[in-house]
Amino acid sequence: MSSTGAGWAQLRQQARSLETQTETLFHTYSQYASAATVPSKPTEAEQRVDAQLQDILEKRETLISQLSRLLDSESALTSSAVKQSNLSRHREILQDHRRELARLGSSITEARNRANLLSNVRSDISAYRSSTNPESAEADYMLDERSRLDNSHSMADSVLSQAYAVNESFGLQRETLASINRRIVGAASQVPGINSLIGRIGAKKRRDGIILGSVIAFAFLMLLYFR
């Protein structure tokens, strides 16, 4: 590769890298225009991003000039046609990015002006109320406090209502279970011989338990005796 070709490739690589950096900074810069609250003055971070964008655009302009001079020094028509297309593309992207920077800067300025205007209007209203009619300002404050208290009371009433509803639901469940138990007991008492059958079953279980305990005790005594 000739020295001219190597220089062209190196300059193009730098140009593409700076184009990518510009896109990344645009993403950061656009967030200042779409922020929910825009500060009254540009922050240090905003100024730093703006300065970086301006610097990169100037570097890209210099690179394009260098590419143009290299292209003018070449004599091969075939390679020059391809390189001319590449150079034109770099120029188009640079112009697009300059327009985008101007658009973002205008959007940020408009958003800042709106925020400052709204802040000034609110300050003027507050100052007017405080200076001309202190009683009105105090009344507005009391109304705001009353509204907050009413909201708190409404929330408390809602929580209590839910608690009462849950308590009532538990009471209904207890009554339902008690009614089911009474029905089971009543049904059992109405079946002939059911109580005596239950008693015999219980007596048989106790007898089986006594027999099993006796067998275990006898076996344990025999084990001790023959040791």
Please give the alpha-carbon distance between the first and last residues: 105 Å
Number of helices: 5
**What share of residues are in beta strands?**
under 5%
| Rg over C-alpha atoms, rounded to the nearest angstrom | 45 Å
**Structural class of the helices, strands and pairings?**
mainly alpha
Largest sheet properties: none
Overall outline: elongated
Mean pLDDT, rounded to whole units?
76
Which consecutive residue ranges, at least 5 long each, have pLDDT under 50?
none
Helix content: over 70%
Describe, in plain words, how this protein is organized in 3D.
- 91% of the residues lie in helices and 0% in strands.
- It contains five helices and no strands.
- It has helices at 3-33, 44-73, 77-132, 134-190, 194-226.
- α2 runs antiparallel to α3 (77-132).
- The model has no long low-confidence stretch (mean pLDDT 76).
Gist?
The protein has about 230 residues and is mostly helical. It is about 90% helix and about 0% strand.
Index terms:
single chain; mainly alpha
Protein topology:
Layout: H1 3-33, H2 44-73, H3 77-132, H4 134-190, H5 194-226
